[in-house]
Amino acid sequence: MESHRFFKRPWWVGMLLVLCIPLRGLAQQANQADAALARAGALALAAAHGEFAREQGFALFHKGATDSYKQVQFGEANVQLTFHADDTKAIDGLQCIKMEPDIDYFKDLAAHALLEVVSNGISGSLTDPRQVYVLRWIAGRHAGVPEFNPPYIIT
Fold it and tell me: How far does Cα 53 stand from its chain's mean position?
């Protein structure tokens, strides 16, 4: 099954900003063990603090993916970062891998598969970022976290 993408450059740039804000706070509170995790990568640090978990079954939905982590903070509209370690490119002398960010409607893998992927496949539509942002805003309000306020708007 092909991966489903609904983002353009401004979306993923904003998503990286959303991810960096809580990770920066963790880095400021880092102890020695966290410092070692931070050297392994920001995602390893976030996973160690229970903010992200390795996504099971990611290869079913993301062709060519080698690893994937999903935020576990909310019941819906969590960020998922999927890595394609075999898809590399040198940028300004730095060897990089492809990373596919997205926000799924549902946290649960079965709900994601049936209510989002299959539904989108049948209808020929894609995940609607406007609906995801609304779900994320509602989930954040229920969880008492600061308002999801990306530095751009959808027009």
Answer: 11
Q: Name the band, by pLDDT with cuts 50, 70 and 90, for residue 50.
A: confident
Answer yes or no: are the C-beta atoms of 67 and 81 closer than 8 Å: no
CA-CA-CA-CA dihedral for 142, 143, 144, 148, to nearest 10:
-90
Does residue 2 belong to any structural domain of this protein?
no
Q: Which residues pair with 90 in a beta bridge?
A: 95
At residue 11, the pLDDT reads 41
Question: Considering the domain boundaries, does residue 17 fall inside one?
Answer: yes
Which helix H or strand E contains 112, and what residues bound it?
none
> Rounded to whole angstroms, how far apart are CA atoms 71 and 67?
14
Q: Which helix (H) or strand (E) holds 33?
A: helix 32-40
The answer to the question of residue 149 being in a domain is: no
User: Does residue 154 fall inside a structural domain?
Assistant: no
**How confident is the model over 126-148, as a mean pLDDT?**
86
Q: DSSP assignment of 59-76, as one string?
A: HHHSTT--EEEEE-SSSB
| Domains in the chain, number | 1
